[in-house]
Design a protein that fits this description.
Order of helices and strands: HEEEEHEEEEH
Number of strands: 8
Structural class: alpha+beta
Radius of gyration: 16 Å
Number of helices: 3
Largest sheet: 5 strands, mixed
Shape: globular
């Protein structure tokens, strides 16, 4: 995943210390009910599509931008399906980040799925009953996007 310029600027001052960052995930379905996935260049594993909003960018706009940048598919966000603070991640260079993920269910509205940048090795549409090996992060978000339940969030521990 390419590091956005604004994060490189922050790292120049913050060093490797924890950065608390927004993250956006897009669960994109086509008219056949298939889900759009990308095989990431950094991990070589299949995953849902996502990224980091630019400063001032609305989360829904980020979802649309990230999907197009990575897959050449145009999409329309339909609803927020999940909001979750993730565990801190330590990258190979020692940088530590923690993300607040906002996951959108999206509908494909155009474009042909293809690798559209250097972040993906492959992209494709998959039937939800024939998914490639995915981590729990991706599976949970796909499952939630398939429901009509209210937005999922961790229950409050205070109060």
């Amino acid at each position: 995943m390419a590091t956005p310029d604004f994060i490189r600027t922050l790292r120049a001052s913050a060093g490797h210390q924890l950065l608390w960052l927004p993250g956006v995930t897009a669960i994109v379905f086509d008219d056949e009910g298939r889900v759009l996935l990308g095989r990431r260049a950094d991990t070589r594993k299949w995953s849902v599509i996502g990224g980091i909003p630019e400063p001032g960018e609305q989360p829904a706009d980020c979802a649309v931008r990230e999907v197009f940048e990575e897959t050449a598919v145009r999409c329309r966000p339909e609803r927020i399906v999940l909001v979750q603070a993730l565990r801190p991640v330590t990258y190979g260079n020692g940088d530590v980040c923690q993300y607040m993920d906002i996951t959108f269910r999206c509908r494909a509205v155009g474009g042909e799925a293809r690798v559209n940048d250097d972040e993906s090795l492959e992209v494709g549409w998959f039937a939800v009953d024939a998914l490639p090996g995915l981590n729990e992060f991706s599976l949970t978000r796909i499952k939630q996007a398939l429901t009509e339940e209210p937005t999922w969030f961790e229950p409050a521990t205070l109060g």
